[in-house]
Specification:
The chain is of the alpha/beta class. The protein has a single domain, classed as Alpha/Beta hydrolase fold, catalytic domain (Rossmann fold), CATH 3.40.50. It contains ten helices and nine strands. Helix 2 links the parallel strand 6 and strand 7. Helix 1 crosses helix 2 and helix 4 packs across helix 5. It starts with a strand and ends with a helix.
Amino acid sequence: MVITDDGCELWTSATGRGEPILCCHGGPGLWDMFGTLDLGPRFRLIRWDQRGAGRSEARGPYTLERMVADVDAVREWHGLDRVPVLGHSWGAHLALLYALAHPERVSALVYVSGVGLGHEWHAEFKRNFERVLGEELRGEGRERAVRQWTADFVTDGERHAEAMATPWFPVNYEANAALSEEMRTVPEAELVAACRSLRVPTLIVDGMADTRPRWAVDSLEQALPSVTRVRFDGVGHVPWLEAPGEFRAAVTDFLAAS
């Protein structure tokens, strides 16, 4: 367990024996789902559950500043000086915020299925989600989540959603609401200006069939001085499950060149 400077216990684990890469999972309010991620023998995945979720202690505060500090606590606990950081979905935004706050500690940034710097994508996401799902969500807890997550995939949605939901923990809706609201209060122009001075090499990975519109990431790509963008056609929100070989090659090739 990592003990943060405010005394919160965070679950963490290292998978593999290669070079470390620090992973930030999606949510907010969810837990590490990188057990399905395979980057090959070259990398050791540093995984952790964000505060309030999964195997970590259920306590706030749930703020962007606090979450960034938690990323740094995990890095330090594992004895890492400078490390690649990979984030997925909300975790992509968290990884970006960490790189902006501590660029000297991030050797490369892998931004997977993030939602960009602005806040105008929600309406299109809702329409896409309802179109793909095709029916009203029913059930509670894990059953409801699995049904919801099937919309994140183009093929084998139920099987992949079951994998994402195993193991299962309660969703922290308090953390989700607090962090989502705070994200909406940060002006896009402020983030764009900060990204223009970020010298950390960045890989943006998009599944072009993601229900979250990919144009939302354009302003991030345009603002970053050192950026590569990879797009996978016919792939949804979790590209390492639907296109594992292509995803692994994109990430490992990028990191080898960084």
